[in-house]
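Input (structure):
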């Protein structure tokens, strides 16, 4: 089969989405403490490794083929090892799909930063992507429950989720919420100033990479020039509007606008437009993303009041903005791109469909993530020890330190054990982690 421009674009788009996971590692890494940045980035890289292998073995098969278990998923053995997809253009579509699976798992990690066992996270990644992500992706985008012939699709209608509001962001947000409740808050949450982001330029660089990659994330599945143009426009304007809304919310609430707020607002807008990118006008994109940016900013501010240690705001950004973008389609979807929303004379049917799909994903992901989490908590432990948390996950989980941070009190460097004392310091040994490592 001859290589067409469409095939080339799919290859490029898949590369863009793949690049988003290292971008997410930078975004999340900058938001953590200095003694947890490597662990945070490693959790994203673990998702790359585990999901990549699982996809070849059985995940790709679960995204293609005939439904089993009443439409919950496809047969994981029908194309085991990608057998049957090789030699066809279906393999290229599967290549594009796996990049979404990788970043969905990686998104969850930000909620449980600084306190999770790395080995347990690796096992969680394998089990969760198999039992939760691949089936949900098949239900929404394949021939599963929410397809035209699926059980839920016949009852509620097919939901609109062009690029992942249901399958990616709400899915990851609910999983993150469950793990937060299982693992508990960090020591000193809400009181320890050392838990603030340690490298904001890294955060902003990560958000810029995410924005860049998101053009492939949203437009990768475009089928016409007109659709691709609309998606590109919406992917540009939505995060811009959400960022401004977030900064305005901060200005009113706190008296100042922050760089962290700008980066988070960009991501909130990208999340909100993901399900709607091909089905709303640019004006609709501005409206729904501005609402999402404000709502996510408010939600992030509430986490300290309700003592929910969503470390890097996965629930506040991905869950909240994912719901806003998904449900907003019930009002703003234009008739030229499928079912119309309330504001375009489509009645309340689509809104009901979007709400039903959101509720189903919430329940499905919530229940299965809870079961997986409880089993891992009982068998492998989810959380590191109190001592390891004080020292830091980089040293205790990986025996590494991202930075050589000098402790002014001792003269030693955090994360290092020098063979001899530095000039002007006492001969007595010092702990592996020091005060400087909390800065």
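Output (sequence):
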């Amino acid at each position: 089969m001859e290589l067409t421009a469409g095939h080339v674009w799919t290859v490029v788009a898949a590369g863009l989405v793949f690049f988003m996971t290292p971008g997410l590692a930078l975004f999340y890494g900058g938001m953590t403490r200095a003694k947890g940045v490597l662990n945070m980035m490693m959790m994203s890289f673990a998702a790359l490794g585990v999901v990549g292998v699982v996809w070849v073995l059985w995940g790709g098969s679960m995204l293609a083929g005939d439904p089993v278990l009443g439409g919950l998923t496809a047969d994981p053995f029908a194309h085991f090892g990608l057998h049957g997809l090789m030699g066809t253009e279906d393999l290229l579509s599967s290549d594009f799909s796996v990049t979404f699976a990788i970043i969905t798992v990686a998104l969850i990690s930000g909620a449980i930063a600084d306190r999770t066992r790395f080995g347990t996270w690796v096992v969680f990644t394998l089990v969760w992507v198999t039992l939760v992500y691949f089936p949900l992706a098949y239900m929404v985008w394949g021939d599963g429950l929410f397809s035209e012939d699926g059980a839920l699709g016949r009852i509620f209608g097919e939901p609109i989720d062009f690029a992942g509001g249901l399958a990616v962001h709400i899915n990851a947000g609910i999983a993150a919420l469950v793990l937060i409740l299982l693992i508990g808050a960090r020591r000193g949450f809400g009181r320890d100033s050392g838990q603030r982001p340690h490298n904001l330029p890294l955060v902003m660089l990560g958000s810029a990479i995410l924005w860049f990659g998101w053009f492939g994330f949203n437009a990768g599945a475009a089928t016409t020039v007109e659709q691709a143009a609309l998606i590109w426009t919406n992917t540009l304007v939505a995060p811009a509007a959400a960022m401004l809304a977030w900064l305005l919310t901060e200005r009113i609430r706190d008296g100042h606008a922050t760089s962290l707020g700008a980066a988070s607002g960009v991501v909130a807008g990208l999340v909100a437009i993901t399900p709607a990118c091909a089905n709303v006008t640019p004006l609709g994109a501005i409206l729904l993303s501005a609402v999402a940016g404000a709502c996510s900013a408010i939600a992030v501010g509430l986490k300290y009041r309700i003592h929910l240690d969503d470390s890097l705001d996965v629930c506040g950004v991905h869950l909240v903005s994912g719901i806003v973008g998904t449900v907003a389609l019930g009002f703003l979807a234009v008739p030229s791109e499928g079912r119309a929303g309330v504001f375009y004379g489509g009645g309340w049917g689509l809104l009901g469909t979007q709400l039903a799909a959101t509720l189903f994903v919430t329940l499905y992901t919530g229940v299965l993530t809870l079961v997986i989490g409880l089993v891992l908590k009982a068998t492998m432990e989810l959380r590191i020890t109190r001592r390891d948390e004080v020292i830091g996950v980089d040293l205790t989980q990986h025996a590494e330190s991202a930075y050589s941070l000098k402790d002014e009190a001792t003269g030693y460097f955090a994360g290092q054990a020098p063979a001899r004392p530095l000039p002007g310091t006492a001969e007595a040994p010092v702990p592996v982690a020091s005060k400087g490592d909390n800065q």
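Notes: The two ends are 57 Å apart (CA to CA). The beta strands are 67-68, 73-74.
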